């Protein structure tokens, strides 16, 4: 593998590189527009070193029985860290990935190859627009939906709205889980609005984040989770203890309070997620 291969993405014009992780020997970082988007450990796809990805992995492990295949839909590919994880921990899972940048997927496959055993179908186009081309057989059958759509360091507005989440809800199985990667900073207005919107569409929402992010002291990732079933269940309670530490679980009345602080987002009112300062994610 060549060190730090580089590609200018045709759709966005942003620069993507694959770089050795300076802190985790044997791991690789996908960096887009200077922002680390994904980390991959080719020797161990179950090793999730990015905090927010590790938190998503813990939620997946709490929500679904170990070793049992699931049906998953990933909006945004990155370096396909979570599809690799699902394939390794739940062999035989059927997975669909929607990615705007076809050349990004080809770039990742060339330099960070997927396991031959993986059943991962890639579809190309805008995450929301491409939902309409998914097989009708997926309606009501998807166990896991991951929303991790970014242009550089920001989430596009059209994948943050009631109308968007209602489209996702059609595909979710009765016991399915939606995970959304939210990036935000003080005073967490974007996150509160997303909690309000997810609660409006799915009936409830909880979140997990590093403590200083959840308290509104610094910019970072909040993982939000919604289900069609009541997820104030026993499996939620133990998530904070799984780390990475220090972790804050925003569930129950705390999550309802976050939703009350926010405003439900529609297509008419949506805005992009807030940008980080230029040094937050620099490698």
What is the CATH architecture annotation?
3-Layer(aba) Sandwich
String of helices and strands:
EEEEHEHEHEEHEHEHEHEH
Radius of gyration: 17 Å
Let me know the CATH homologous superfamily. Answer: Vaccinia Virus protein VP39
Number of helical segments with 4 or more residues: 8
Per DSSP, what share of the residues sits in E-state strands of 2 or more residues? 25-35%
The tally of beta strands, per DSSP, is 12
Note the gap between the termini.
20 Å
Share of residues in helices: 25-40%
As residue ranges, the low-confidence spans are none
Q: Quick one: biggest sheet?
A: 8 strands, mixed
The CATH topology: Rossmann fold
Describe this protein's structure.
The chain is α/β, with parallel strands linked by helices. It has one domain: 3-Layer(aba) Sandwich (Rossmann fold), CATH 3.40.50. Helix content is 26%, strand content 26%. It is built from 8 helices and 12 strands. The chain has helices at 51-63, 81-89, 102-111, 162-171, 189-202, 211-214, 234-237, 252-261, and strands at residues 6-8, 15-20, 27-32, 35-41, 71-75, 94-99, 120-124, 142-147, 172-184, 206-210, 220-227, 247-250. The protein has an 8-stranded mixed beta sheet with strand order 7-6-5-8-9-11-10-12, with helices on both faces. Helix 4 crosses helix 5 and helix 5 (189-202) packs across helix 8. The mean pLDDT is 93.
